[in-house]
Amino acid sequence: MKLAQLGKVIGSSATKVVRRGGMPEGDLPELTRKVSASSELRDEIAGVFGAASEEGEAGEWLSPALLHALCFPVSLELLADPRLPVQPLGTVVTSQAWSLDAPMGPGELMLRARVAAVGRDQSGATVTIECTLSREGIDCYTECTNYLDKSGKGELAAAGAESELARSVPHLREEFGVGRSGRLDIGQRHALAVGRFGPKISKKWAHATGDINPIHVSKVSARAFGYRSVILHGAAVDAWAARELGLTGAEPCRGSAAFRAPVLLPAALELVAMDDENFAVIDSGTGRDLVHLRYSGGRESAGRRDIGAAIVLPRRDGRSSSTAVSQGMCAGASAGLPRLREKIESSVPWRKHYREAMEEMSWFDAPERGHDCAEAGLEALGSIVHFADGRALSEAVIKDPGGDGGGVVVGAGAGGTTTGLPFSDRLHQWHKDGLLQPGAYTALSEVIANPALLRAEGITFVCLGAGAELSPARQLLQWGCDVAAVVRPSSKRRAGLLGAAQKGTGRLYLSPEGASDVVDAPERVAGWIAELPGRLVIVDSLYAPGSAFLLAAAGADVVERLVCEVRSDTMLAWIGSPTDAYRLEGEPRAVLGSGALAKTVSGFAAVRRVRPGRIGGVYPGFVDVQGPNYAAAKRIGRWRATVEWEAGRDVSYNVGPMSLTQSVTSNRTLKTAYAGLNQLGMPPLPADASATLMAALLLWDVHHPEAAQHSNTFLTDKAIDCGFFSSPYEPNGLMELAVALGAIKRLS
Which pLDDT belongs to residue 86? Predict the structure, then answer.
């Protein structure tokens, strides 16, 4: 049935609603139709979730989602029967169950549809429709769907009987209990899959299946029926879950779903396994159990990643909580400091109060105070965060990477070193203006004077997050160094690494697919790194938005720890941020800028009560736009650097400049703020320039490991801080002024 025809059915049913009232008399309605399942429809259904139909054997068969789509138009015809106490407009699906008894390929099928049961109670009027698809007289697929019309409330009445298939719908709260929040108790069970869905997916499903009920495609219509936003089709949620679990239709299988609450778009959903056959779809934001599912048979697992080896966030009241990690690890770090621990634990909500708590902690976990806090913080991290299979992070073990090794690219270009570091002609002025620390000025000046420092024979630089904009990987390859890239095959930046490798004279080692992500498989990543040739220098330049950054930092720490256990001469390196809190010696400048600018800044700071650039000997560098996940992720690296430095390992920790990365330039507020910082004499640098300067500092550290070994302020010795460290005001307060100055400049 075409969309236009479906529209007529819905429209005609709306005019008949006045005739609906009693229960149907006699036999319940039924219909028989010939339907055609085409390969084009198969591809369209698969494309709703951004994937073409599966290749190989599974691609020859019709998925349960497609078979449901074939049944829907005829089901809608039955719903439009004026004898039924419902109208299709605004009707929702409360549950469905299906059974694929014999796999089917594209072609013509016979469809029998009937109204199996009708009811009415205080929730509304319900209709149960049963559909059967057959080929050559053999029943291959059966489904039973329950529809609810909330406007059809009335006295209790019923006709027909519930089928055995309909009774298979799961009620997981009864089986697994409820938590303190009154929702399904999922404990610390991990998500098998996470999906983020916008309003467009509902329109795609409507186009592919013909289910154009306006509550799924129009916010105005959805609100008219009592919903604040459009609702994702229940069948689409079922199809997404079945696809993630590998139910392709290639083998007999069964499924059932209870739709407890509507999925309002946009939505972030988690698919959680309660046991081998029962699953729940959870709202990531609230932890609410929206859909209960049960599947059996027909699951294809070939080629799927080892879910249990992935790092996951702990749960609080059903939802994943990054606060449990960031606040918990900070509380753990302050175990021996009762007053600080009380301050951290009482900082509620954490996102609003983390800055003050972590600033005070920065006094105690600084390397010059020893490594006790750092070690305790890492121990807390290892117990709070866990793998999806239930193991604590501290229980990680190095594993065989598997796969084909990922491959090696040998450079055939000119390669070699260069004295052409970006902004080398401004280095002296930057030093004079306080835009970088003396150690950075000395190191970069030495590199410019002695290009041989840009060579590192016998060393393999392992870049975690090799595709990141601030990763030194591309520049190291250009200078002829050997680089091992931990990068996903699907990464858009992988091509840039390959190009840099081909132009250089070094080698690029690419991680195998099963060991290309420090969150999904950190133990396999460590296993691959441990087998690389040469002395290893592991460089952590990872970045990700939100809680993903926290997980990435935890995964990187697992990799670093495991590799160091088997390769004792490994050197570790990090790129720090100027928007972090550090213990700094000395006092900042008295004023920022000169003349009218200095008066503007000081006046703004007084009116807005901007905090000073030193609070109790600590530089309070956090900015609100980055949040506690960013601060905690950076702190994990600092703690590992401190612990390994105390143990005598060679480490490199260099604070990089504010940089015009893609994440910055794509954010209008940040882009405007960075333009304002330039006017304040604190210029951010282009991303490629920052990456090159940080690569040069890294190589200097490789040749001068004693510099960090003999300095308890190694975290900030060679910072390119763009002037933040010497500013009389904290960066967070200056950002507001920078936005205003940047906006004025853009307008002018």
Answer: 86
Which amino acid is it at 444?
L
As a whole number of angstroms, the distance between CA 97 and CA 280 comes to 15
HSE, CB side, 13 Å, CA atoms: give it for residue 23. Answer: 19
Quote the tokens at residue 239: 């199809």
Q: Classify residue 431 by burial, with Cβ atoms within 10 Å: 0-12, 13-18, 19+.
A: middle
How many other C-beta atoms can be found within 10 angstroms of the C-beta atom of residue 138? 10
Task: Tell me the C-alpha distance between 122 and 152, whole Å.
Answer: 9
**CA 280 vs CA 238, 293, 480: distances in Å:** 11, 6, 51
* C-alpha dihedral sign at 510, 511, 514, 519: negative
Nearest to 570 by CA among 635, 511, 647: 647
Query: How many whole angstroms separate alpha carbon 684 and alpha carbon 700?
Result: 23
Q: Strands, DSSP E only, in 124-277?
A: 124-135, 138-149, 157-160, 191-197, 231-232, 253-259, 263-264, 267-273
Alpha carbon distance, N-terminus to C-terminus of the chain: 58
Backbone angles phi, psi at 335, to 5 degrees: -55, -35
Residue 61 burial (C-beta neighbours within 10 Å; 0-12, 13-18, 19+): buried
- How big is the chain, counted in residues? 748
Q: Are 639 and 365 within 8 A, CB to CB?
A: yes
Taking a C-beta distance cutoff of 8 angstroms, is the pair 699, 424 a contact? no
C-alpha distance from residue 59 to each of 51, 248, 454, 463 (Å): 12, 8, 52, 38
Tell me which H or E stretch contains 574: strand 571-576
DSSP state of 425: G
Instruction: Report, as ranges of residue numbers, the positions in the chain whose pLDDT lies below 50.
Output: 1-20, 52-58, 301-304
Are 597 and 731 in contact by the 8 Å Cβ rule? The answer is: no
The distance of Cα 479 from the centroid of its chain, to the nearest Å, equals: 33
Outline where DSSP puts E strands in 577-679: 581-583, 618-620, 651-655, 659-660
Q: Residue 508 contacts by C-beta under 8 Å, 6 or more apart in sequence?
A: 408, 409, 411, 477, 482, 483, 484, 485, 497, 498, 500, 501
pLDDT at residue 303 in the model: 37
Q: Is 164 exposed, middle or buried (0-12, 13-18, 19+ CB in 10 A)?
A: exposed
The distance from CA 600 to its chain's CA centroid, rounded to whole angstroms, is 41
Nearest to 482 by CA among 448, 511, 501, 508: 508
Angle at 628 between CA 626 and CA 630, to 5 degrees: 55
Omega before residue 266 within 30° of 0, cis = yes
Single-letter code of the amino acid located at 503: K
Compute the distance between CA of residue 618 and CA of residue 639 in angstroms, rounded to an integer: 17
Extract the tokens encoding 324: 């449990």
Please check whether residue 311 is in contact with residue 191, taking contact to mean a CB–CB distance below 8 angstroms.
Answer: no
By the 10 Å C-beta count (0-12 exposed, 13-18 middle, 19+ buried), 417 is classed as middle
- The helix/strand/coil state of 462 is strand
What pTM does this model have? 0.82
Longest dimension (CA), the chain: 97
- What is residue 155's three-state secondary structure? coil
Q: Say if residues 493 and 516 touch (Cβ distance below 8 Å).
A: no
Tell me which DSSP letter residue 133 carries.
E
User: What confidence tens digit (pLDDT) does each residue in 4-17 have?
Assistant: 444 444 444 443 33
Q: What token pair was written down for 299?
A: 């699951």
CA angle, 185 then 186 then 191, to 5°:
160
How far apart (Å, rounded) are the C-alpha atoms in residues 446 and 707?
14
Q: Which residue is associated with the tokens 């467009």?
A: 200
Contact, 268 vs 194, CB < 8 A? Answer: yes
E-assigned strands of 662-747? 685-686
Q: What's the pLDDT tens digit per position in 684-731? A: 999 999 999 999 999 999 999 999 999 999 999 999 999 999 999 999
**Apex CA 454: angle with CA 449 and CA 457, to 5°?**
140
